[in-house]
Each structure stands twice: as C-alpha cells, then as structure tokens.
C-alpha cells in the first residue's frame, strides 16, 4: 500500500472534510481502482433499472391483473422521482458529504428493491419503484462527484470518465437483456432481487475506500423555498411528460401541466436570485461549457433512450422476438460502445476533446438513418447489427468528452450539483424524447390504418417517423457540439481540456 493511499485512509479515520487536501488527493493503484469500480457499479445498477422492468411488464400485468394505466406507472414512478429530485440530490451530496449521501441512498435503494421484489399488489410495487427513483436521484450525482473528486489529474479523469460514460448506454442495453432473461428463465421479481448483492457490495466498498466528509466545514444549506420550488418544477414537468401517453399534448391537462411547471421554474429562478446560498449557484450555470454541455446531453439522451424503446418494440412486435432474444440482440451495441469509449479516452489524451462531440453525434446520426430504413423483413445481421455498431461508435466517441466538459471547471464544493444537472439533462431528455416520439409514432400508425394499411405496415411506418425525428435530434446535438467548439476557440481553453490551437 503506497503512502498516498495510507494518507487517504487516515483522512477517513480523522473525519477530514472532503474539501481537505488529504481527502481530495487522487488515490493511486488499488485505492483509486476500488473507488472507480464502486461508483461505476452503482451507476450501472441505476441505468439497468431504467430499462430492466420494461420487458417484464406483460408478466407483471398478468400476475397482478393490472390495467394498462396502472401498469404504466411501474416504470413511470421510477422516472418521475428520479428526474424530479436530481437537483436537490446533487446539492445534498455537496452539503452532507459525498460518501454519506452515497451510502444512505444506496441503502435506501436496496431496501426499496426488497419491497418491490416482495410486492403482491400494484400499489406496493409502484410505491417501491418511486422509492427506488428517489434514492437514485441522490445516489447518481453523489457517485459522479466522488469520481470527479478522486480523479483530478487530466489523464486520470479522462480514463475514469471513459469507464463511466460507457455505462450510459451499456446499462440500458444490459437492462433489456437481464429483464428478458430473468423474466423468462426465473421470475419477474428477480429483476429487483438482483440489486441486493450489487448494492450491499457497493456500500461495503464505499465504507472501505471512499473518504468521508465532515459537517463542520460545509456550506450553509440552500433556502427551503428554492429547494421546494425547484423540485416542484421538475416533478410537475416530468409528471406532465409521462402522462402524455394518456393525455394528448394539446389537451388542457398537458398544456396546464407545462404552464404550472413554467411558473414554478420562474418562481424558482426569482428565489435563487435572492438567495445567499442558491440551490444551483450562478457560478455553475453561467459557464458556457456547463450550459451547452447539458443541452448536448439532453439531446443525446433523447435520441439514445428513445432508440432503445422503439427498436425493442420493433423487434418484439414486428420481427416477433421473445423478450430474451430482443435483449440479447443489443450485445453488439454494448460491445462497440465499450470499445469506442476506451479508444476515445486514449485519443483525447493526445488530441483535442472538442471535435469528438460533433464527430460522435454525426456518426450516431448516420447510424440512426440506417435504422430508419428497416421494414417488416429486415434481417438482424444485415440491417440491425451494422446500424447498432454505427450508433454505438458515435456515442462512444461523444460521451467521454461531454462528461468532462459538462462538469469541468467547477469547484469541489459544487461538483455534486454539476453532476446533478448533467444527470437531470440525461434523465429528462430521455423522458421527453420517448414521450414526443411515442406521440409521433402512434399518430402515424393510426393515420396509416385509417387509410387502409395493414397493421404491420402501419406499425413500421410509425417507427420510421420516430426514427427520422431521432435522426434530426442527433443532428441538433452535433450543432451544439460545434457551438461548444466555437466557445473553446474564442476562449482559448475549455476548463482544462485540450482544444485545437
């Protein structure tokens, strides 16, 4: 055990605050690797839970005799609470200590998973899913801020973020695979039981390796009114989005929901401007790399998560794949994403990080155009695999630099809120993308059937409409990547990341 790692353990024993030099110094060898594995495993678990329940929904509905409306709240309760509480979750990681918030939220997530696995009614299951989402809203920004505080050197941070970024899509794809396998081969309750060993191992590892922060040197908590208004605005916005499946976008309920969310957001901004301790410090959001980086993540997540949703439906409803086969079909995507994330991390060490944002988004756009060419007879190896590989390569090129850019330059005491903002953009972007594209696909399918088209052909045409809009979303992300590059050239730097001369 090297001397630096011994010092980090001493910082834990003496309860040094996370902002202290001993606690914040990057660990070497086993200590740093253990922290990286711990937080990445936690994030992977959360991302798996984004999608693992989807392929199990028909089995859950059959066992509990649920209506379609009740069934939709099993994934939506998780999404609502996760997206709604991310900002306050990120700030609490800064105020209460990263390890403390990480461990408490991980324990809460495990407990909620136990309740979900034991649930015998929809009310209990939906409540447990909401509790999982709430715990995840605190855990995810805490985990990312632990990573940022641990790996402060540019080269080390780039490599750590490569591991983290590869989980973004890998977790979603793995969730589909695990959900299908566990539902078909064992029982749907195992999609929740699988979190127990993972969560317990992560809590033990965090207690062993992650430094603990002391309360006495922490900043004052943000005002209660700001916290309540910000959380209420996000909750209302996400709730309105998830309810668009039952209430059209032009309905009074949907329009009213967005109007209320906008009013709450305005009240939040007014409260923030008057607060001495804002929930989201102006110094964080005024940075172009953070504001533009979050827009980029919003668009990328909207395109990516909607792709998982629609292509999985296409494989099951058009090609007739079983849940397990549909999940396994994503393996080439997962492998390619991991490979290109590693390649990008190496390239960033030698060249600028900036061009990869636009290049990655354009490559992903090309892959989405390939997916948009599918029909009712498309082959897996000839059509889907090449498209999966192209999209995955694009996201592998883009996600490593955007994580560093969208969290770069913030002080350690604000790393949690910067992480929370980025995760909010990812979660809410995915929710908005799926909701908007479901409306587009459904409207197209219904119109085609009204004109006399066969159901299968109408379904495919609905998917086509969604995929073409996704292509446009990813192209918009490429434009935002160019804007980030313009800012980088004008300023001569981008928060410590290398940029073109």
Query: What is the CA-based Rg, rounded?
Result: 22 Å
Largest sheet: none
> How many beta-strand elements?
0
Mean pLDDT equals 81
- The secondary-structure class comes to mainly alpha
* Separation, N- and C-terminal Cα atoms: 41 Å
Put simply, the count of helices is: 21
Return residue spans where pLDDT drops below 50 for at least 5 consecutive residues: 1-29, 214-219, 495-501
Question: Considering DSSP H and I runs of 4 or more, what fraction of the residues is helical?
Answer: over 70%
SSE string: HHHHHHHHHHHHHHHHHHHHH
C-alpha geometry: globular
Percent of sequence in beta strands: under 5%
How would you describe what is shown here?
This protein has 501 residues and is an all-alpha fold. The protein has 21 helices and no strands. The protein has helices spanning 3-13, 21-24, 29-51, 57-64, 68-84, 86-96, 98-118, 122-150, 154-185, 190-193, 195-209, 224-242, 252-274, 282-285, 288-317, 323-328, 331-350, 355-371, 380-406, 415-450, 455-491. The longest helix is centred in the last third of the chain and has 37 residues, at 455-491. The two termini are 41 Å apart. Mean pLDDT is 81; it is low at 1-29, 214-219 and 495-501.
Write the layout of secondary structure elements.
Layout (H helix, E strand, L loop, with lengths): L2 H11 L7 H4 L4 H23 L5 H8 L3 H17 L1 H11 L1 H21 L3 H29 L3 H32 L4 H4 L1 H15 L14 H19 L9 H23 L7 H4 L2 H30 L5 H6 L2 H20 L4 H17 L8 H27 L8 H36 L4 H37 L10
Helix pairs in contact: 3-8, 3-9, 3-11, 5-8, 5-12, 5-20, 6-7, 6-8, 6-20, 7-8, 7-11, 8-9, 8-20, 9-15, 9-17, 9-19, 12-13, 15-19, 15-20, 15-21, 17-19, 18-19, 18-21, 20-21
